[in-house]
UniProtKB/TrEMBL annotation:
Reaction catalysis annotation: 6-phospho-D-gluconate + NADP(+) = D-ribulose 5-phosphate + CO2 + NADPH
Protein name per Swiss-Prot or TrEMBL: 6-phosphogluconate dehydrogenase, decarboxylating
InterPro entries: 6-PGluconate_DH-like_C_sf, 6PGD_dom2, 6PGDH_C, 6PGDH_Gnd/GntZ, 6PGDH_NADP-bd, 6PGdom_BS, NAD(P)-bd_dom_sf, Pgluconate_DH
Family: Belongs to the 6-phosphogluconate dehydrogenase family.
Residue spans crossing the bilayer: none
Binding site for NADP(+): G17, M18, G19, V20, M21, G22, N40, R41, S42, V82, Q83, A84, N110
EC code(s) of this entry: 1.1.1.44
Record: residues binding substrate: N110, S136, G137, G138, H193, N194, Y198, K268, R295, R453, H459
Length: 484
């Protein structure tokens, strides 16, 4: 089909990049009463969107970037929905060259937050607003109501906010959208959201693996267990869809579909970014890191083949009380999930201090309650905890979570111990428990590490009974200590 010329018509907002996410966001905006200009580098893709959805949406199709920008109502708002990296820079540059001071460019892709900070600073010099905006919820969320995490200036949010809040998911009447903070804050929060998602998916996988290994349950039976769990405090989107995956039968073989899917997990980099940035900030996100490494290990197929003959040295598993074992796994899953969310919020808090972002963690927890992939029942409790004490240094220190994790500890320890004894890998269950034990321990062996560092590199150490830093002259008689 050929596209009609836009003429003198104007659009409230524009979307360039008509992939599935871009076209679904455009359809969501149009369904909520906005006139939406649409554009794609390939005009054929715009034609396809119009052929499929043009009759149901208030679209203004355009065939060039010049035409796209020209039909946007001032101050212009253009959403960029293209592949992260150079493609995003190219589109931003093209838009910026045609825009005027006060106009707004919004990157709704999964860009690295440092790229967003660089772009925002550059466009600010031109008088343009640049917004790095996290969007979570996948294809369905984009169409029917995602969780939206925009960064950028307050002025840009004054223009964008009403539109985004209208198309976002709603929980208890509240839109799952709020301004996160300046420059790269929105994309940073979305990055950590995805890191938490990695950990959440992995711990569900570990629970599945344990129930299969210890009890010999088939996928459909595990789906029934998970469905029951999902009706209680573990209620979450990821557990809900896991039930559907486990119940799916492969039409080719008649076997459970999960049994014919290659056990090599993919990733697009946000888990890696979350881990790398946490290391830069000095924040332990052990659950997220182990989940990221678990995906890498699963995809290390030549190495896994070479290791198939390795001795397990494990016991054969004989569970005498299946119900108790299932409850132990449930408790371990709940505690490990809490650790992932706590660690993720800790990384966000550290980044806010590092980059001068004023991020409201309670508001963030509330907008994650709907639309997004990591939505879960206990996010309401997380929001309450952060509202009660905005300076709470550790989510697990809140009375509700401290009490809940303490109740799960006996089960959690049994599960991790049994998994190790029986040769079943549980990297996130195990590392999350180690993190919990590490953070609650009053005296860690880091004192010895500091002594070692000072011995071979004169890196100094601090004392528990004096101020300042010290160095021991290890090679001298009597090993005298000097204040550094």
């Amino acid at each position: 089909m050929s596209l009609p010329a836009p003429g003198n018509a104007s659009a409230d907002i524009g979307v360039t990049g008509m992939g599935v996410m871009g076209s679904n966001l455009a359809r969501n905006l149009a369904r909520n009463g906005h006139r939406v200009a649409i554009h794609n580098r390939s005009v054929e893709r715009t034609e396809q969107v119009m052929a499929a959805h043009g009759a149901q949406a208030r679209f203004l199709p355009t065939t060039s970037m010049e035409e796209f920008v020209a039909c946007l109502e001032r101050p212009r708002v253009a959403l960029v929905m293209v592949q992260a990296g150079q493609a995003t820079d190219d589109v931003i540059d093209d838009l910026a060259s045609r825009m005027e001071p006060g106009d707004i460019i919004v990157d709704c892709g999964n860009s690295l937050f440092t790229d967003t900070r660089r772009r925002e600073a550059r466009l600010r010099e031109q008088g343009l607003h640049f917004v790095g905006c996290g969007v979570s919820g996948g294809e369905e969320g984009a169409l029917w109501g995602p969780s939206i995490m925009p960064g950028g200036s307050q002025e840009s949010y004054d223009r964008l906010g009403p539109m985004f809040e209208k198309i976002a998911a709603k929980v208890d009447g509240e839109p799952c959208c709020t301004r996160i903070g300046a420059d790269g804050a929105g994309h940073f929060v979305k990055m950590v959201h995805n890191g938490i998602e990695y950990a959440d998916m992995q711990v569900i996988g570990e629970a599945y693996h344990l129930l299969r290994s210890a009890l010999g349950l088939e996928p459909a039976a595990i789906a029934d267990v998970f469905a029951q769990w999902n009706s209680g405090e573990l209620d979450s989107y990821l557990l809900e869809i896991t039930v559907e995956v486990l119940r799916q039968v492969d039409p080719r073989t008649g076997r459970p579909l999960v049994d014919v899917i290659l056990d090599a997990a993919g990733q697009k980099g946000t888990g890696v970014w979350t881990t790398q940035v946490a290391l830069d900030l000095g924040v332990p996100v052990t659950g997220i890191a182990e989940a990221t490494f678990a995906r890498a290990l699963s995809s290390s197929l030549p190495q896994r083949v070479a290791a198939q003959t390795f001795a397990a040295g494990s016991r054969s598993w004989r569970v005498t009380d299946a119900d108790t074992f299932i409850e132990d796994v449930r408790q371990a899953l709940y505690a490990s999930k809490l650790i992932a969310y706590s660690q993720g919020l800790g990384e966000i808090r550290a980044a806010a201090l590092e980059y001068g972002w004023e991020i409201d963690l309670a508001a963030l927890a509330r907008i994650w309650r709907g639309g997004c992939i990591i939505r879960a029942r206990f996010l309401g409790e997380i929001a309450r905890a952060c509202d009660t004490d905005p300076d709470l240094p550790l989510l697990l220190a809140d009375d509700f979570f401290a009490t809940r994790v303490a109740a799960a500890l006996p089960s959690w320890r049994r599960v991790v111990s049994d998994a190790a004894l029986h040769g079943v890998p549980t990297p996130v269950f195990s590392s999350s428990l180690a993190y919990y034990d590490g953070i609650r321990t009053s005296r860690l062996p880091a004192c010895l590490i500091q002594g070692q560092r000072d011995f071979f590199g004169a890196h100094t150490y601090r004392r528990i009974d004096d101020e300042g830093t010290f160095h021991t002259r290890w090679a001298e008689p009597g090993r005298p200590e000097v204040k550094a």
